[in-house]
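User: Show me a protein chain along with its predicted structure.
Assistant: Here is one chain, sequence first, then structure tokens.
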Amino acid sequence: MSADSRAHSFNAAADQYAAGRPSYPPALFDFVEQVMRRPLAGARVADVGAGTGIATALLRARGADVTGVEPGDAMAARFRTGLPDVPIVRGDGNALPLADASHDLITYAQSWQWTDTARSVPEALRVLRPGGALAVWWNTTAFDVPWIRAQHERIAHHCGVAPSPRARPDDGDAIRLAGLSGLRAVRRRVRWSRTVPLDTHLANITSRSAFLVLAEDDRRSFLRVERERLRELFPDGAVEEAYVVDLLVATRP
């Protein structure tokens, strides 16, 4: 299955994505402001690969003048339903539909891996104002929590992929290209957790691209077994999910 097919698979599960995917902790945005040396309030921000608007809503809540950028029809429609007053334009990070030197911040929440960094880094440089920043982040797998690591291995096995020793897609090229492009990159990891109903947890894990490209029967068979296993771990039906946000913020001169 190609990366492009997996990227577009989210379009078929926009409502599931919106219902199950986790948000992000306030400390993430505190760190972005620290690196930018200015508050998000009043900053002009483009949230690229905005999806259903999870990160966009948080940026707006911090007072940012934010625009979503999203390639998928269903994702953009779900974005408009949830955030009717926030503008959204169609496009992706490889060819941003934004004017030169027009934004203070460009963000990628869970979406940087779907870009070609040889194109997306120069595009960020084109769109950012002097002193502007590019922020890339992922909610990563908390492998030090035994049940989460075991579930990760079960998911990988069911989807026919090798369990990854990394918690998120490799951003080595992003860091290298940022350096070559004159951007100053800073990394931060932020641990956080949320407690959700079992159904929300299952909606979250099966909204991942590796699951979305499987046949419906394959997804159902995994969910049936996984539901029973998690009921034994969490008899009250409340699942505590642990995350480590991996954040890269790169500023341009």
